[in-house]
Design goal:
This protein is α/β, with parallel strands linked by helices. The chain folds into two domains: 161 residues, Beta Barrel (Lyase, Ornithine Decarboxylase, Chain A, domain 1), CATH 2.40.37.10; 254 residues, TIM Barrel (Alpha-Beta Barrel), CATH 3.20.20.10. Helix content is 29%, strand content 24%. It has twelve helices and 20 strands. The strands form three sheets. Strands 4, 13, 14, 15, 16, 17, 18, 19 and 20 form a nine-stranded mixed beta sheet that branches. Helix 4 packs parallel to helix 5 and helix 5 packs across helix 6. It starts with 12 loop residues before the first strand and ends in a 5-residue tail after the last helix. The relative contact order is 0.16. The structure holds pyridoxal-5'-phosphate. Pyridoxal-5'-phosphate binds next to helix 10.
Length: 431
């Protein structure tokens, strides 16, 4: 249980049995802003970026960039923070592009992804982005037929389907295995290269993304080799771009500590790219890494309040005021979490509990069978590693209002997203 605190943001401390982040007492925050409540710790976000940047500076001699995968969580404040860190923002589709543009992210720092981009997505990308990562031949055809005459066509990178799996959830968080819906096979990829040449489209790079939340960089190596083979076939002569995606994992439970090292991930990629380019006589590309989770997950904490406590056979359920509507990850792929009470951490008794939300689904579970200090109804609990793929996948199921989100720095609390209101739930309905 002692180690569990290491899952929380780097500024987390226990003082007089109470949990604090960036010196803010979580009980006070929950009382002031209500629950469910999400917190983002600025110091933890900055720290993750600096780990990426310093690893790239140590291991890769050519230009290299970090792109934040906005799908992990994007709102104005986060998009603005990315610019304080000079990150590129990966936007999936026109909705995320709109958020980035509103936040003031410049064209040079917007890259657009999506597995089946519509003409509207592509139009937004052409207008606002520096780069479009082309997922498939249909999309390339849409770009050619709708936008090829444009003066300012973004750079095009082609997304390769490497056909190699990383070790993670077999269907839900893998994207690079041979049956995946993402990217192009080698044959499709070469056809796309020919189309770019024929229509003089600005083909500038290669991309792949093999999956999410993996902690062994080894399966990336054959995919990098495959991408470099294709780069050789294309015969890039000037600056070219290569992005082996994101997906580096984080620890969600104390059993998974220490968190996978960002330095070893970056080193593994950089060495493979440098060696692979040397062998093939290729110019070293501008290397891009595209993390989402490993930048923002640990910075985020969810606070819930316990309501009913139900004993059912061997099981004790703590029923909370948040669950699958703000965090569907257990329901989607059985994600594991840990949790601590926000106060009374030194309690003598510990119990195995399961934590579930208030929504009408048996899959509305947050945690199954976790040993934690015993808590009563009314207690506040904090779920660490809540910064990625919670709110970005949240819903209004059962009329749930999305939670408020706070930005925490030492001596400063800012509401970056207010809690949704009942009016928000009605706003799209026509009368
Ligand atoms: C194309 C692409 N890049 C980057 C990411 C980021 O992955 P992660 O948040 O696991 O780092 C994803 C996640 O699905 C993705 O699809």
């Amino acid at each position: 249980m002692q180690k569990r605190i290491d899952l929380f943001p780097i500024t987390a401390r226990v003082e007089k049995d109470r949990l604090k982040i960036a010196d803010h007492d979580l009980t006070t925050l929950a009382e002031t802003y209500g629950t469910p409540l999400y917190l983002y710790d600025r110091a933890t976000l900055d720290h993750a970026v600096s780990e990426y940047k310093s690893a790239l500076a140590s291991h890769y001699p050519q230009p290299a960039s970090v792109t934040y995968a906005g799908k992990a969580f994007l709102c104005l404040a986060i998009a603005q923070w990315t610019q304080l860190q000079s990150l590129t923002v990966d936007c999936t589709g026109e909705g995320e592009i709109a958020i980035a543009v509103e936040a003031g992210v410049p064209r040079a720092n917007i890259l657009v992804h999506g597995v089946n981009k519509s003409v509207a997505d592509l139009a937004a990308a052409v207008r606002h982005a520096n780069t479009i990562v082309v997922d498939n031949l249909y999309e390339l055809d849409r770009i050619r037929s709708h936008f090829s005459g444009q003066a300012q066509l973004p750079d095009l990178w082609l997304r390769l389907l490497p056909g190699v799996s990383v070790t993670t959830h077999h269907t839900h968080t893998q994207t690079g295995h041979h049956e995946s819906k993402f990217g192009m096979t080698r044959e499709e990829f070469m056809e796309a290269v020919d189309i770019c040449r024929e229509y003089n489209l600005p083909l500038k790079g290669i991309h792949f993304h093999q999956g999410s939340n993996f902690r062994d960089p080894e399966p990336l190596i054959p995919a990098i080799e495959m991408a470099l083979d294709l780069a050789q076939k294309i015969g890039f002569t000037g600056e070219w771009h290569f992005c082996p995606g994101g997906g580096w994992g984080v620890a969600y439970h104390e059993d998974e500590l220490p968190s996978p090292s960002i330095e070893s991930y970056v080193r593994g990629i950089a060495e493979a790219v440098i060696e692979g380019c040397e062998t093939r006589g290729l110019i070293l590309p501008h290397l891009h890494l595209e993390p989402g989770r490993s930048l923002v997950a640990r910075a985020g904490v969810a606070i819930y309040q316990v309501g009913a406590v139900k004993k059912r056979g061997e099981k004790t359920w703590l029923l909370t005021d948040g669950g699958m509507a703000d965090n569907p990850r257990f329901a989607l792929y059985g994600a594991r979490y840990a949790c601590l009470p926000v106060s009374g951490l030194g309690g003598e008794r510990s119990d195995y509990v399961s934590i579930a939300g208030p929504y009408c689904e048996s899959g509305d579970i947050v945690i199954e069978n976790l040993l934690m200090p015993s808590v009563e109804t009314g207690a506040l609990i904090a779920i660490p590693v809540a910064g990625a793929y919670h709110l970005s996948m949240s819903s209004n199921y059962n009329g749930a209002r999305r939670p408020a989100v706070l930005w925490l720095e030492q001596g400063r609390v800012q509401v970056i997203q207010r809690r949704e209101t009942h009016q928000d739930l009605l706003d799209r309905d026509m009368r």
